[in-house]
């Protein structure tokens, strides 16, 4: 029995010698795949077809099994099927509309699956006829828009979004999907915004709407004017932006909750159990659908909103009570047996309720806090490509935030203090932080904590250079804002200095191995220039004069690392080789650090000798530092408080192209029309029609 026959609806066997009977809809599909017009002998053929329960598997497999010559023979019938599907969407008979939507999805998937190597024009021609394609797609998009914006049932709206996600993701590379040109011309942007601005529809369809928008924004974004990019960049409607933020917040909150639940399950086990748990958190279980790709889609949506729309920055800071979401919804929806993470969060309506009482003792949260917690999870383990991409996207989002003046203002606002419990990688040499000990501080402290945590925990053989560069640049941008606005942040700066010095030490210890893959001098230069920022401008943004003294103490205490770095870069810069120029820049950048070391070390040694002390205490060293500032000479270094602003094109274009491909494949896998059970749909609409 052929594969197609296996997928046919078989009714019964009358005897061992007779073939099984096919269900009527399968027989009607067979008529479409015959040469003759199926309506020739039966004028009511199309009316009857859309009253039949769709057999998705059979229809798709039929389309996939058609060879080149047959395509030409049955093209008129396929075009006619597409045309009648679109026409049926305007009918009041809801069962017909459901069947037409599902048939369209089977058509898009089946034709693309069969013709992966075909041009977009050939696929358009096979589906709807190239000469009629513009009108057909205009009609389709208008009817989908009407269904999404009208009084249709929630199940029907969900089905429309599933069809659109199906259409957008049928090709591996979204920009090669020529049919999307018609989706650009006949925009459904306003329909997506309407879903996001309404509390009820957002709760049901927000996740799909946000993912759809993120994908559409990435269609040929570098090659032509994408209307979805233009429109997203100018949205200023507060309920819509809040709605988008709430969908992203809820998806990330749910992910964080599931991670925490798994973490607590593993409490009390051996260290190896904890470590393996961290490594396996991002692999989808059959029941949970917890996968890094699913969250990459939401993360991409957050990135596009932050990057394109300055008005969205305000959404990041909007406070609301931090509510623990129950593990399972109180009233589970039977139509979604396995929904991806964060699709239909149970508490969304409650979190959107403006009448929600605020308990003064209840910790408040916002989208930025939730995102920082999420980032602290995905940045723990970057060995897997998906996790590496997710961590990279988190850092790109933080880069955009760190460059925005309004975002910097609320990050550093002393009146907006939060207790942010970041996840920390289990390590043998340190104790697990206790949540209750976390102080309430401005949000910039949590961002700096996250950067320090990454720097400390990823010094390994497979060195994630790109992520380290981004981390150090984020720190630099925050310091530039603090210097510019003279903000004296009460932060444990010594932890940052210690982490950066240890990073330099790691680069020195692994020079040969790392140089085979990376330009370590660029990273070393950025780190040294962070110290130069503190040395040159620290008196304008460090909280107290004691902090400035402690900076000098750390530099002098760890002078051996800076001495070794200078010897290394001097050696490389005086020899001919590919790193000569890069090493030379570090040599020049070290001038003030070396001046501090060369000035204070003899003074400290002299103080110890005069007072007959073999080992000075920290306070004694600080006393020497304070009393010898006057005779220290430093050089003024230009450009320390300047930085190159983030630009997606051309530097990040290749990354986003691959990221969108990965997300598209994952969405295609998850967005099966079986997610909306046919039986449930038909039962629902049989009572309406």
TrEMBL record:
Keywords: Membrane, Transmembrane, Transmembrane helix. GO terms for cellular component: cytosol; membrane. This is Armadillo-like helical domain-containing protein 3. InterPro entries: ARM-type_fold (IPR016024), ARMD3-like (IPR039868), ARMH3_C (IPR013636). It comes from the Eukaryota. The keyword tRNA-binding does not apply. Residues 435-671 form the Armadillo-like helical domain. It comes from Parambassis ranga (Indian glassy fish). It is found in: Membrane.
